[in-house]
Design goal:
Strands 1-3-2 form a three-stranded antiparallel β-sheet. The chain has one domain: Arc Repressor Mutant, subunit A (Orthogonal Bundle). The protein is α+β, with helices and mostly antiparallel strands. The radius of gyration is 14 Å and the shape is globular. It contains five helices and three strands, in the order H-H-E-H-H-E-E-H.
Length: about 90
């Protein structure tokens, strides 16, 4: 198993959770989203939201920019593209 395969497994595991899948969908539609906006949209406790962010960061899908006390999130589009491209190659045989 290659490093790319292991990365893809981590990404797919992270996306297997409905909340994280929806977070990634939202980030895919926008350039950057403030943490406060995600907290309002998903109505989760701070620890629950933090857990989802940590999982997405650990698999490499989530990038964080800090500006003072504020956190802004971006999707690592390059990683998601590589994982999906690899999946597409598998599908073609």
């Amino acid at each position: 198993m290659t490093a790319v395969d292991r990365q893809a497994i981590r990404v797919f595991r992270a996306l297997g959770d409905p909340t994280r899948y929806r977070i990634v969908q939202l980030l895919a539609a926008r350039e950057e989203v403030a943490c406060r906006e995600l907290a309002k949209r998903f109505r989760l406790s701070a620890p629950a939201l933090s857990h989802h962010f940590r999982v997405l960061q650990e698999c490499g899908l989530l990038r964080v920019r800090k500006e003072g006390p504020y956190h802004y999130f971006r999707l690592n589009r390059a990683l998601l593209g590589r994982v999906l491209a690899r999946w597409g190659r598998w599908d073609r045989g």
